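Follow-up to my earlier ticket, as requested here are the two runs.
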Amino acid sequence: MLDVRAMQRTITERLGLPWVDTETEDTRAKLLMKALARKRFVILLDDVRKEFHLEDIGIPLPDTVNGSKIIMASREQDVCIEMGAQQSLIKMQLLGAQASWNLFFSNLSTDARRSIESSYSIKRQAEAITKSCQGLPLALNVTSRAMAGLKSLNDWRDAMSAISTDLIEIGGVEEIFQRMKYSYDKLDSTTKKCFLYCTLFPEYSSIRKEQLVDYWIAEGFIPQNQRWKGNVMIINKLKSACLLQETNSGQKVRLHNIIRHFGQWLANQESNFLVQSGQKVESVPEIEQWNGPQRISLMSNDIKNISLSPNCTNLETLLLQNNPNLKSLGPKFFKSMINLRVLDLSNTGIKELPECDALCQLHYLNLSQTPIIKLPKKFWVLKELRYLDLSLTDSLEETYDNCSKLLKLRILNLFRSHYGIREISNLNLDTLKELNFLGITICTEDVLKK
């Protein structure tokens, strides 16, 4: 699905122009058209799936006068023709046998290369594995990295057997997924869970490392006192296995589109996920669909309200962030969510939370950038809560001294919250013995002393 806003933001940042969040897409397109019309540019458009008008993004049509270029990649030739690129089509071929072998061989360790060069039998096994990747660079990269340390003939036979045994007689992408699955199977159980968690995010989105680690800790994948394990070990393992990519900033990671679909394919086999993130849906799934999933992601949509009271005792993760038009939740919405550990409502229009007595296992709650006015009076029942984000809550006026009763809190963020800017008489930090992060805006001397 075309994300006009994301494309406009990328171009705006590359041009060094200010980003104004309140501007409409049409207004922004006109500004970008003017800015680009004065430049000679090259724009790369990857994975284009359907026709769209460049002018809607703010990209002027290239011509011989301005000398600008647009390079577009698509899986479908018809899309290229519809976009007017029929005169300069280049069909990308799969790698040939020698190129595939060169790519596969280049990712192996020195010891693995030596074993291949010194043993005809090992070389035959390695060549068979290379051939099974069918010239797809991504599959070759993922598989060869997973086998980089193999040395003995038995190691290579076991690797070939693992790929052959799992092979399902289905065509296309799923057949490639079976071959890529070898890298996933080599991961430890914790890293597998962390990888599948990444598939909850929208297609093409970048994910902050810090946010991922916060989720993983709340889910119990990583111990509270081993935050470094998420940043250093797990993310690096996934990058090394070519399952996760780091962005230029170094602060975020992303899933390649094919890898994301691969992860969802795995999740459908091994877990029970319901993912409709970033699909511009306006309503939540039917109540029957809430019964089984362990994790539900409806983030980055246009959902306006949720009135149902689902029976979802298995649910551990509910991600509803970035639904700015979501104004209300049904009064009994949380009633059966007795095992919920992660709840993200950030950047929504929620003004108040419904009854939350059932959320006795909740570890993570994000209400940042919401117009919430007050916390529920019985908010203190969330005794397992470790992470509470109330930052940028401009309307928050009353907490009923609930924060000081959440004795397991480790992270409390009140930065730029209306509550706490002038007076925090009922924020008794002395009771929060586990607290190791406090975000707060200090505007008066009394608040500073407190």
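Run two:
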Amino acid sequence: MVGGEAAAAVEELISGVRRATDFAEQFRSYSESEKQWKARMEFILRHLPDYRDPPDGGGRLDQLLSLSMVWANHLFLGCSYNKDLLDKVMEMADGIEVEDLPQFTTRSKLMKKVNRRHHQTCLASDLLMEMWMV
């Protein structure tokens, strides 16, 4: 009898996971790759119990979906957001494993590189002018 109860409990757990996955599937964007969707769905399912809409509405589910998009856009597209918002979504995603993420160069890193080259060009130009003036 104990084995039958355990099997029923496992079946109920599997059924619950299927229902949650089916529920989350409706929020998949047509442009998301399988890899992106799997990661974002894990994010959504992990926090779904905390973001269920109360009976009178309230938009908690919309907030979760927005947070999941912020996280996915940051991870897969390199989008940047307010530091507090990024800290929140990164904390929420702690432990979600995503392999082979793209590497992005931020605007500030590009500007530093451009400014460094510009500075070196100016130094070389000044040196040439000094040599010419002599």
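The only thing I checked on run two: The chain has a mean pLDDT of 81. Let me know what else you need.
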